[in-house]
């Protein structure tokens, strides 16, 4: 065989190997361990089912999944109804889950809005009969409720664990729609919600010198301060500017976190509450998050807007927007306008 023929064989062999590697990657389940509800409607075609599985991040390739289902004969066994599927499963396991409703439990839809604290989240879960309130709060105080992998991915190091925080999982329970059963173990619920936070943040690139946990802490403050998503990066930039200049954040939201019930307007005595969370008397970030931030807040904290603003104050004109100032003199002008605080 001449050298030209050998070269063609080598190239052909390399192409086959690359093709096999690509197929192996495609059929490997996406990362994640969260359980999600998956509904198959009556008369749904398999192409639509496969596409929805991809959108829900159960599979990577609808085409290969459909081909596998056809070859194995499992395509015709899929039954309509509400299924509960766990991420990380292979094609065969997913098709087995979709082919029966016998193993399904009655999962309740629970919506956890952005900006809630651990106490507010547990009240919602307890009211629905999903978890015992006391057990959940006890589990929420311990770092051991999180897996080592979750702690590593969320930037929870020895320094963080030594800080004086209210709840270890505060800010780590991602706000989203969940499907839970009645009387679940607190640790299982926390794991699922924290895993969702891991999934949502793992693709974020932090453009500051913050750790992932510090970024989430900043995002939790942004969540409570900003009502408009389009202002979140600008507000993040204000806080980063103040941190870099060694100024106190002076965020009212960190003080509200210390109160039993939020106040419409904080009093001077509130701003003097002795706590590491009070950013009116302490420099830097609070020891941990003060709420569960949504994805726009997390993105803002990871990539703040670059500007020269050091202050902001709500306009109180019904637009939910803010005045931004570079100097304290300008800031005072805005705070003295009628209707502002």
From TrEMBL:
Principal EC category: lyase
EC number: 4.2.2.29
Transmembrane annotation, as ranges: 9-27
Name of the protein in question: Endolytic murein transglycosylase
InterPro entries: MLTG-like
Keywords on record: Cell membrane, Cell wall biogenesis/degradation, Lyase, Membrane, Transmembrane, Transmembrane helix
Function as written in the Swiss-Prot or TrEMBL entry: Functions as a peptidoglycan terminase that cleaves nascent peptidoglycan strands endolytically to terminate their elongation.
Organism superkingdom: Bacteria
Entry keyword Magnesium: no
Native species: Fictibacillus norfolkensis
Location(s) in or outside the cell: Cell membrane
Family: Belongs to the transglycosylase MltG family.
Record site feature (Important for catalytic activity), residues: 225
Entry membrane topology: Single-pass membrane protein
Reaction(s) the record says it catalyses: a peptidoglycan chain = a peptidoglycan chain with N-acetyl-1,6-anhydromuramyl-[peptide] at the reducing end + a peptidoglycan chain with N-acetylglucosamine at the non-reducing end
Membrane found in the keyword field: yes
Cited PANTHER family: ENDOLYTIC MUREIN TRANSGLYCOSYLASE
NCBIfam families, alphabetized: endolytic transglycosylase MltG (TIGR00247)
């Amino acid at each position: 065989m001449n050298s030209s023929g050998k070269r063609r064989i080598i190239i052909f062999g390399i192409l086959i190997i690359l093709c096999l590697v690509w197929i192996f990657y495609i059929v490997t389940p996406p990362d994640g361990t969260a359980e999600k509800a998956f509904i198959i409607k009556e008369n749904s075609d398999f192409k639509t089912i496969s596409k929805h599985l991809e959108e829900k991040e159960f599979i990577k390739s609808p085409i290969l999944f459909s081909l596998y289902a056809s070859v194995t004969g499992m395509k015709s066994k899929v039954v309509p109804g509400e299924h509960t599927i766990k991420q990380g499963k292979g094609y065969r396991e997913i098709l087995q889950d979709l082919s029966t409703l016998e193993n399904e439990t009655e999962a309740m839809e629970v919506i956890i809005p952005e900006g809630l604290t651990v106490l507010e989240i547990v009240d919602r879960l307890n009211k629905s009969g999903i978890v015992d309130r006391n057990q959940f709060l006890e589990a929420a105080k311990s770092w051991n409720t999180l897996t080592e992998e979750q702690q590593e991915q969320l930037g929870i190091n020895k320094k963080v664990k030594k800080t004086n925080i209210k709840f270890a999982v505060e800010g780590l329970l991602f706000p989203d729609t969940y499907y839970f059963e009645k009387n679940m173990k607190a640790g299982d619920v926390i794991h699922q919600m924290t895993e969702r936070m891991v999934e949502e943040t793992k693709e974020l690139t932090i453009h500051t010198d913050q750790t992932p946990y510090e970024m989430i802490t900043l995002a939790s403050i942004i969540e409570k301060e900003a009502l408009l998503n389009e202002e979140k990066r600008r507000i993040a930039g204000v806080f980063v500017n103040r941190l870099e200049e060694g100024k106190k954040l002076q965020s009212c939201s960190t003080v509200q976190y210390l109160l039993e019930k939020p106040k419409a307007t904080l009093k001077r005595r509130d701003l003097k509450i002795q706590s590491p969370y009070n950013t009116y008397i302490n420099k830097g970030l609070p020891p941990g998050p003060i709420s569960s931030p949504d994805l726009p807040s997390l993105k803002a904290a990871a990539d703040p807007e670059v500007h020269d603003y050091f202050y902001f104050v709500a306009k109180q004109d019904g637009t939910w927007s803010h005045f931004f100032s570079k100097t304290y003199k300008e800031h005072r002008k805005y705070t003295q306008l009628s209707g502002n605080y």
